[in-house]
């Protein structure tokens, strides 16, 4: 399905995200029962819940003094530190890399002047991708009024809005005074029915999954040793191969999120031995995300571990008719497996904040729209 077909009615939006009160309560209780650093080792935040217009949301609170902090609660970490780290993708083009670093450096004072690190973030599940429930203008006005009174010195932030899943919510947020700050390019594998046409790459992935010597591990088959190994596998991929700026999810986090029914798990293991690949799936209403992916990067690429766990997630989405947000990264890989690109935004409300901060956020919005989005699309960042 082409992006144009998926967006031909841009203000139509299915209500695909449920935010079940029970799941929100379990999540908030976890982060109040257990010290945050025992769950996400590189994160400082406070977690609460809020109900607005009949919707329940997890809520995070962060102060500027928390920086440097994990980017899931720290815009300066996302727009400065993570952006600089991403220039590693251009090591073969030193002039371009230098130019991008210079551009990011020039924008850093603007990001700091915005004060966005001093924030209240709505709907923050502490994942890189947090699917957002459908919000109309009345609900947005209610939540904006409530949060601005309760947190008069904090920017109000909602992450993970994208052009395919959230067109109506984005339009309503803009109409209620929210600024849309482009963040990254993500990939959507939409529900295409129970038997979608498969690309050749998808067919090869499933053939490999059917012939691998590794044993599939189901959601009910995870032990304490598997949780510890899952942390290792996630760290090998997201913290060592990619960047230590990614959330450092611990074994305790994976265990608690699984046992409390927030994440489901699947993986591959050596016959009679340890896990070699793992994935954690977050199902929220009719939407699926994949916040945990990891594999043994010391094994040969020919084993196809990443290909197989991604195939498992796509099959899970297809079997249940779910809208699968595959998040960012591995652009070519995801395109070849039926996903389409979309720009993701952070929505920010600052109407109750000092003029200096409001102006900085407005300028950020303009710079990101005019320079950031073309770069994201050109280099699939």
From TrEMBL:
Class in the EC hierarchy, top level: transferase
Recorded GO MF terms: acyltransferase activity
Pfam families registered for this protein in UniProt: Acetyltransf_6 (PF13480)
Keywords attached to this entry: Acyltransferase, Transferase
Top-level taxon in the UniProt lineage: Bacteria
BioF2-like acetyltransferase domain span: 200-335
Entry-linked InterPro entries: BioF2-like_GNAT_dom (IPR038740)
E.C. number: 2.3.1.-
Protein name (Swiss-Prot/TrEMBL): GNAT family N-acetyltransferase
Biological source species: Mesorhizobium abyssinicae
